[in-house]
């Protein structure tokens, strides 16, 4: 279906169901057991709906047509609009990561060793809290699996082992 309809058209249809439901991403997240950001990723076709989660999503959004539900279970074309960076919230998030990135990287290396945080085995959520001054604050949590870099020894190369075995 995604080849027949544009991704934007699919996302528009899916988000129309969400809007009609009157539910927030947080409410849908509570009903499905997913994070609020993952729900948004699903509805924007940036993540694949797993078959075991589909009934929960359908219970949360009962007006979601079967054809859209089926499409959401297909691997999505993960992409972004290059103009998205111009949106002020996205720009500020990018700015924050770029500003703090070098320090975050050094702390990851200090605490874990030479490696990175996965963006695949990854959880993300957005929460609203009150600051000490009583004003609203945004908490963005990145929770990714640590992936150490591998020392690349020729003895561990499967392709080299296969070539030697022939």
TrEMBL record:
List the Gene Ontology MF annotations in alphabetical order: cyanate hydratase activity; DNA binding
Q: Where is the Cyanate lyase C-terminal domain?
A: 79-152
Q: Which residues form the active site?
A: 92, 95, 118
Protein EC: 4.2.1.104
The UniProt keyword set, sorted, is: Lyase
Task: Look up keyword tRNA processing and say if it applies.
Answer: no
The answer to keyword Lyase applying to this record is yes
What does this protein do, in the record's words? Catalyzes the reaction of cyanate with bicarbonate to produce ammonia and carbon dioxide.
Q: Which family does this protein fall into? A: Belongs to the cyanase family.
| Name of the protein described by the UniProt record | Cyanate hydratase
In its UniProt entry, the species of origin is given as Davidia involucrata (Dove tree)
């Amino acid at each position: 279906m995604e080849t027949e309809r544009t991704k934007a058209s699919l996302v528009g249809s899916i988000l129309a169901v969400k809007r009609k439901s009157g539910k927030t991403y947080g409410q849908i997240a509570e009903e499905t057991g997913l994070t609020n950001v993952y729900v948004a990723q699903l509805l924007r076709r940036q993540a694949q709906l797993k078959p075991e989660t589909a009934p929960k999503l359908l219970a949360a959004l009962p007006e979601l047509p079967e054809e859209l539900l089926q499409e959401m279970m297909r691997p999505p074309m993960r992409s972004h609009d290059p103009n998205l960076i111009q949106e002020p919230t996205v720009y500020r998030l990018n700015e924050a990561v770029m500003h703090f990135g070098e320090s975050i990287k050094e702390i990851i290396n200090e605490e874990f060793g030479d490696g990175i945080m996965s963006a695949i085995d990854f959880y993300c959520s957005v929460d609203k809290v009150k600051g000490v001054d009583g004003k609203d604050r945004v908490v963005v949590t990145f929770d990714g699996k640590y992936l150490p870099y591998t020392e690349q020894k020729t003895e561990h190369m499967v392709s080299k082992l296969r070539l030697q075995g022939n």
